[in-house]
Amino acid sequence: AQKVTQAQTEISVVEKEDVTLDCVYETRDTTYYLFWYKQPPSGELVFLIRRNSFDEQNEISGRYSWNFQKSTSSFNFTITASQVVDSAVYFCALSVRAGNNRKLIWGLGTSLAVNP
Amino acid sequence: ETGVTQTPRHLVMGMTNKKSLKCEQHLGHNAMYWYKQSAKKPLELMFVYNFKEQTENNSVPSRFSPECPNSSHLFLHLHTLQPEDSALYLCASSHTSGFLYEQYFGPGTRLTVT
Fold first, then answer.
1. Contact residues, chain B, for A103 at CB < 8 Å
2. Which of A92, B3, B34, B67 gives a 20 to 30 Å CA spacing to A44?
3. How confident is the model at residue A56 (pLDDT cuts 50, 70, 90)?
4. How many H helices and E strands in chain B?
């Protein structure tokens, strides 16, 4: 089976707390790509990061960081010192082979509420 | 205008109406997509266009009819919809199709079928 699991449906934190959003994936492919997107209340999904399966380096971008671990098939996303503007639904997605093409498998998303 | 724009943002239509959703991207991308987003379901890919040619139709009912006159514009023509078609319809674009690269999304059209 090829799938993406975001086990946390909803998370609520208080501003300035750190929060980690989990993403666990399943695939038989050796070459695949992982993405995180943010969907604020305005509706549009905003691209955050793309990672290919051969690059296991962790990534940090400001208050955002990503921990990619192939051994546990996880690609977790941490927001440090959360802010109210981080409130959104966050989606993890997996790009895998589908015959001669590729397909994108989406998780169900984690709704993050950051309270003042 | 920058990024991906969609109009209208909200649409209420009866089951016998015909309406169209419009999407425009200002990013110089060659691939465009329609997605349906419903509560508690994964994002559903509907159609993919690459260089104006449809490359994917994910078993979408014929009451949804896409049109891509050029690489910057994408339409979704709607007719004889059902209440279960009520959802957020998102348009996206990317450099090329194939899901190797990130997509850029519009704000969506919130569709309600009465």
1. 45, 99
2. B67
3. confident
4. 0, 11
